[in-house]
Amino acid sequence: MGPIIRTPTARALISLVRNPLDAMPPSIFTEPLVFSRTAGRVSVWIADPVLVHAALVKNADALWKGDQVRRALGPALGQGLLTADGAHWKWQRQSVASAFRPASLDTLQPAMIGAAEDARNRLLNLVEGTADIGHEMMRTTFDIIVETMMSGGHGIDVGRVERSITDYLEPSGWTFALGVMGAPHWMPYPGRGKAMAAVKFLRSSLARVIDERRRSGETRHDLVSMLLSAKDPETGRTMSDDEMVDNLMTFITAGHETTALGLAWTFDLLSHHRSIEQRVLNEIDQVTGGQAITAEHIPLLAYTRQVFSEAMRLYPPAPIITRTALKDFRLGAFLIPAGTVLLVPIYAVHRHALIWQNAELFDPDRFAPEATKERHRFAYMPFGAGPRVCIGSGFALMEAVAVLAVILQKVRLTSVARRPPEPLMKVTLRPRTKLAMTVRRRSLLAER
Q1: Which strand (E) or helix (H) includes residue 423?
Q2: 307, 280 in Cβ contact below 8 A?
């Protein structure tokens, strides 16, 4: 084992509570592998794409999600697709896989465009002309996922859902810190009561959706119907109501939160890089001929997709992957003992000096086809990596391009701040301060 960076326990815990990004060893931005010790426990930080592949793919059967993930997400997501392991994870993934195949996704594009048009109209109708673009994108992606995955959601309170997700994630730094200390799961911490109340509301809302669908007897081509009809191919058992709620919670919360954050960061970056925004506008105009965005246009907006990809390089919505070794295994020149926590700091990998030139620069040309071919596939992991890669990545990319194109075609957004805010990890990567942006109608710009 190589040299170990020792972090004083108190300092590490304070960093975890305030912003877990600050708990990353600084050398992980320049070194391929770093060992650290905190509170007597050794962790392995992996940034080399070759070693990431070796850990998450070649040794996938030697790893499990671990206690940190269960602490942070278990109360809300139970044993759903994001948190389950082994055979239970495998059969759940197989049960919903068809919903995310390309042919299925194509049928969802009109709903995505419709929600994007609603968002555009809300922005243009703002009386004050200033928007919290993060909030607007949360609402937009929630509308999309409820419409496409739940056929409308039976009157779910969108505003309260957004607040509840925030209430749940807000104290997540405490769950990380307590996990490092090996504290029992029941130990209280600031914000825990509010977080648990949020979980109760969210899960009960989705339980009502399942109950109403079952009582109606309707079969629709959506995630709810898939969960109701899902069967384990080996045992023949179906999902319990709790397991269906686990998976709906996973897709509703993780699915809309991550894409919304990616979009918010993208709009903010474009407002600071007008030449790049102009290239997006030129592409939209060339593809559409100035007409309204339709489903046929989305796959043709290649540069717009590159812009979103680059925004997620700088601000990956899920900034750290954690795994725990179930058994001893070799990783490169090192023997990793059972029980070791492995961390893949995607935020650091995406800004690593050995992987990216001018890593802090916003440059969508990094994702031109030739440039992408030249990189190791595990140099860029906004949707995770290995067998556990996000099943909804195609959905998210299609959705993001649709929302960007529809809004940018008619709306000019300008950040109120001079530079993007500090990223803050609350399980997902949120801006520390709101992304406030002024709104102007593009058709009026030439008249001023």
Answers
A1: strand 423-426
A2: yes
In degrees, rounded to 5, the angle at the alpha carbon of residue 145 between the alpha carbons of residues 416 and 312 is 45
Rounded Cα distance between 285 and 417, Å, is 28
What is the C-alpha to C-alpha distance for residues 307 and 303, in angstroms, rounded to an integer?
Answer: 6
Give me the amino acid identity at 219: T
Alpha-carbon span 425 to 320, nearest angstrom: 9
Cβ(305)–Cβ(393) below 8 Å: no
CATH of residue 260's domain is 1.10.630.10
**Listing from the earlier edge strand, what are the strands of the sheet with 4-6?**
4-6, 33-38, 41-46, 341-344, 321-325, 63-64
3-state DSSP helix/strand/coil percent for the chain, to nearest 5? 60, 10, 30
Give the model confidence (pLDDT) of 319-378 as tens digits: 999 999 999 999 999 999 999 999 999 999 999 999 999 999 999 999 999 999 999 999
Domain that holds residue 431: 4-447
Could you tell me the end-to-end alpha-carbon distance of the chain, in angstroms, rounded to an integer?
65
pLDDT one-digit tens code per residue, 383-394 = 998 888 888 999
- Report the C-alpha gap between 369 and 306 in whole angstroms: 9
pTM of the predicted structure, to 2 decimals: 0.92
**Coil, strand or helix at 342:** strand
What is the SS3 assignment for 100? helix
| Count of domains forming the chain | 1
- String of DSSP letters for 224-292: HHHHHH-B-TTT-PBPPHHHHHHHHHIIIIIHHHHHHHHHHHHHHHHHH-HHHHHHHHHHHHHHHTTSP
